[in-house]
Structures are given as C-alpha cells and as structure tokens.
Design brief:
By secondary structure, the chain is an alpha+beta fold. It folds into two domains: 208 residues, no CATH class; 109 residues, no CATH class. It is 40% helix and 18% strand. The strands form three sheets. It has a six-stranded antiparallel beta sheet, with helices on both faces. The chain has a three-stranded antiparallel beta sheet with strand order 2-3-4, with no helix packed on it. It is elongated and about 80 Å long. It starts with 21 loop residues before the first strand and ends with a helix. The N terminus is likely disordered.
Length: 330
Amino acid sequence: MTATIDITPVRPNPWTKLGQPIDLRNADDRTVLAHAGLDWKVRLAGLYTDGFNPLPNHRAVVREDTGIALGVVSPDYQPAQPAQLIGFMRALSTQAPVIVESAGSFKRGAVTFIQARMPQLDMTIGADYSASLLTLVNGSDGRRPLSCGFQTRRIVCMNSLEYAVRTIKGNRQRIDLAKGHVIRHTAGLSAGLGDMLNAYRSAIDGHRQTRDLYQHLAGTPLTKTLEREFFERVFAAEGPDESERAASLRKAREERLQAILSSPTSRVPGTVGSAFALMQSAVEYIDFYRPTRTSDGEGADAARMFSSQFGSGQALKKKAVETIAELTAV
C-alpha cells in the first residue's frame, strides 16, 4: 500500500516498524520536513488558453521544486504550505510535547499529511490505556480543505487518509479534545490556524482535568448505594412513565447495565469495582445498547452512533460524567 505514497513518511507502516519518530523538542522544522520529503512550497501561477489568452478567473497551484501543477483554483485561493503544517505542530508543542510519527504526501504533493502523538494526552486508568494521533491533512488541488483532528488510525494509504478526513468532519460539532476542525483555503486561512491553535490549547487543559477526574474515580470504591443513585439520576428522564411499556424498557435497561458491570469491559485491572467502571458502564450502554429512534431508511446502530456523538446520547454521557463527579466529590 505504501507504493501509493510519493515519499517516505517518518514512520511508513505500523507493521514494518520502519522510520524514527521525531520529537519536536529535539529537531527543527526544516529537519522534519526534509525527513518527510515535504521540504518544498507551492505557488499560484496564471493560466492561459492554447491561444495564449489569459484566464483571469483561474490559477494553477504549482509545486515549486518539480513544476507540477497540482490543481486549478480561483484567484482568491490561499494555499497552505507544508511548513505551515509543521509550524502549527511546533506552536502546539509549547503547550505539551509533540512527537511526529508519520508524515508524507499523495498524488505528487496534491495531498499532504502530518500525524503526531502528544504523550501527555495519553490516558492511562488502571490497565486501561488509550492514545491518539493528532492528524493534519491538507489539499493543494482546490478540492480539499485543511482538516485537523485526533485519530486512532495511522495514515498509510489514501483509503486511511479519507477515513481520517471523514472522521474529522464528523466531529466538528464536538466540544472536547476530539473536536474536528476544517479550514477553507481563503484569505482567513492564517487566522483560522490561529483560532484552531487556541481551541486545542483550551481543550488540552480540559483533557488534563478529565484525566484527573478519571484517576480520582478509579480510586473511589463502588458501593451499591453509589450505583443505585448514579443510575437513578442519569437515566431518570429515560423512562419516568410507569406504563407497561416504559416499565419493560426500564427493566431491560437495568438488566443490561448489570450485565455490562459484570462483563470484562468493566473488570479491567486497576478500575474493577470502582466509580470509574460504573461511569464507563453507562457510557457503554448509551453507545451500544440504548434504544434510539430511527428515521426512514436508517438502521438502529447508525442512529444510536449519531445520537451518542451529537444528539441526546451525547448529552446523556455528559450528564453521566457530571453526576459521577458530584456523587464522588471529596
């Protein structure tokens, strides 16, 4: 699959173990760009008909080192240089360490990307560990905006890149660290990068607070009283009507939550029998089992996934975090 990549990424494939991650604290931008094959610029050039008549409403985006035209754009198009991508990562590294794991280009430079880990944002609660890659994807073909967001998958081909971009766009409505950002190639490109940088700085602070809360919950024993009050508060609005159908739904929910609490996902070493496992059981229920209304032609799984990310499910998960924090406050 790496044959579709025009240059050698910092670390090409996770399964080959090739390449060496670069800590931005130990390398300058020029070194990173050269190592990834991104040490070049693009410029806008005029276009002409075969009769040498100018086309005033069109420009070509040209890669300066090769002279290849990457796309045709309007005169107000503002290109983003590869150096701007690594510059953004550099600016973010003043907030927390940034380690570039993968970088490269596709389609002779028409699409570029950089992926980096921020170790301070990794989450370790008991034996449960999660890490993500901050992913920047840019297009110089006039068809693709600049996109940025956290991903769990490494980009190794165009399919994985397109998946990353779709995920970023789908997360634009989020308000946490997983929020996706999309910036158009207009005169406001630089300002947009500045706004995105400030948003991530704020989100990093919020992530640290979340990590502290999770560690507190992992150290708080789970009691029957805490379990009962937590579930009653979080799901109080889910079925207050004691009609026969509502009672049946409530009973099914309670049985499912108990099953989740007894399952391996809630019995991770270091968090089993804790308030953290209790909160996670509610999140798992909302993400995978909660009854959700569907629209015409929509499956229940798709409707539930959308709800858990952007709709009532997302609001319910927020309520679960706020409730467990209140019930375990010291």
